[in-house]
Design brief:
alpha/beta, Beta Polymerase, domain 2, 2 domains, two-stranded parallel sheet, 8 strands, 16% strand
């Protein structure tokens, strides 16, 4: 089903116009949940903007400036310049408190990058089918990421999980035993449940092996996604969740030995 982007019509028009007027803004498309599925009234608009190499910062300032001038922008969160080696990113908010969910979300995530194969090639399994707004030279290419690269990353993830297994359980359980619950929760999510989810992703959706807990119920079989839910912090005391989580990790690691 095609996502209904109508509440962002002003943005779609602005992006098309600034792209037509700016010679350094070469490609613009909408991704995120509009492309992958799950679009709803709380979704922001995820926009990829590819620029003439070396001009991303200037294009960023022109686009954000145009939005401030022409649209009802409340505030902008600009990520530090060092966040992306070849780009910029800003979140443009039209509501003072979008997290109150008092009305449908109006927020736009703008990611600017140099035009390159790394950015213009889209694996639809990983990112969904982009909604292209501006691509006069046909730069956007839809094709799977390199399989050998995916296989190598997944193999490394499994190997690291196996090497880290004993240390991970010790870190979590030591924090639990000491009563350091904030630390224990952080370690449990990173080295316990997070690792289990990555092992599940390697099996079921290797092209998204590094997506963590995002899109969990979309990417995993229902029974396994539901099992992850039972191991989330708060479902039971961490002292009970930890052994169940690491037992599942052992099952998964053993299955990769087959």
């Amino acid at each position: 089903m095609t996502a209904d982007l109508s509440r962002y019509d002003d943005w779609l028009a602005l992006l098309r116009q600034v792209a037509a007027d700016d010679p350094d803004l070469l490609v613009v498309w909408v991704g995120g949940s509009a492309a992958t599925g799950g679009w709803d009234e709380w979704s922001d608009l995820d926009v990829e903007l590819l620029c003439t190499p070396g001009t991303t910062s200037q294009v960023h300032d022109r686009v954000v400036g145009a939005a401030r001038e022409r649209l009802d922008v409340d505030h902008v969160w600009q990520l530090p310049l060092a966040t992306w080696p070849d780009g910029r990113q800003s979140f443009v908010n039209h509501q003072r408190r979008p997290g109150a969910l008092a009305e449908p979300t109006r927020a736009v995530d703008l990611h600017f990058a140099d035009l390159s194969d790394a950015h213009r090639v889209v694996d639809v399994r990983r990112h969904g089918r982009p909604v292209v707004l501006h691509d006069p030279d046909g730069q956007v290419a839809l094709r799977p990421d390199d399989q050998a690269t995916i296989d190598a990353a997944c193999a490394q993830a499994v190997d690291q999980a196996r090497q880290r297994r004993a240390t991970a359980e010790w870190l979590v359980n030591r924090a639990v035993a000491r009563g350091q619950l904030p630390e224990a929760t952080d370690l449990y999510l990173r080295f316990g449940l997070g690792t289990v989810v990555r092992l599940l992703r390697v099996r079921h959706c290797p092209w998204r092996h590094d997506f963590g807990l995002r899109y969990l119920h979309t990417d995993l079989p229902p029974a396994e996604a539901a099992r992850v839910d039972t191991l989330l912090p708060g479902a039971a005391p961490l002292g009970e969740l930890s052994p169940a989580c690491f037992a599942w990790m052992d099952e998964l690691l053993a299955s990769y030995d087959d």
